[in-house]
Specification:
Order of helices and strands: EHEHEHEHEH
Shape: globular
Number of helices: 5
Helix content: 25-40%
């Protein structure tokens, strides 16, 4: 088995991503690896695709929210060495770019399982990363929440039991 020196964890700060973060921390701790936590801000037409933290407006509310979330994650990581990256661009491309820049050995990303197809990954971000990554991807699949599932109309054919 190849050594794992760098674990990349892309996050959108969702509940599913939090669970993947804990898994990424465990893997990094077990392998004495460095953990890189990445958040991709939405692409805007005026910002270049490779805009990095140094070029993000540090007074913006999105920067301040990310910084606060990163500080909370750092506290949860404990003794795991954590590096944070904040970039602007298209999520799949930026995740793959940062994975190459950081020379990631493993990507740990969250996805949400959909009832319609148990093989579909959430949004296509996780799927795009999974399909195009230069390194292994651990995709932590989350079952669909019961509340969301209940709010969707059922497409199943229901039959009454025979008497």
């Amino acid at each position: 088995m190849a050594a794992i020196d760098v674990v990349l964890h892309p996050t959108d700060f969702s509940t599913q991503a939090d669970q993947a973060f804990h898994l990424a921390c465990s893997i990094a701790r077990d392998h004495f690896a460095r953990l890189v936590v990445l958040h991709v801000l939405p692409h805007s037409n005026e910002a270049p695709d490779d805009e990095d933290l140094a070029l993000v407006d540090e007074a913006s509310t999105e920067y301040l929210k990310c910084r606060e979330s990163f500080q909370q994650m750092c506290a949860m990581a404990g003794d795991v060495p954590v590096t944070f990256r904040l970039v602007k661009g298209y999520p799949v491309g930026m995740i793959l770019k940062v994975a190459r820049e950081e020379d990631a050995d493993l990507i740990v990303i969250a996805s949400e399982q959909h009832r319609q197809s148990p093989f579909r990954l959430h949004g296509s971000v996780a799927e795009g990363v999974f399909r195009q990554s230069h390194c292994p991807v651990f995709c932590l699949r989350q079952p669909e929440s019961p509340l969301r599932a209940a709010s969707k109309p059922s497409t199943e054919k229901r039959t009454s039991p025979a008497l």
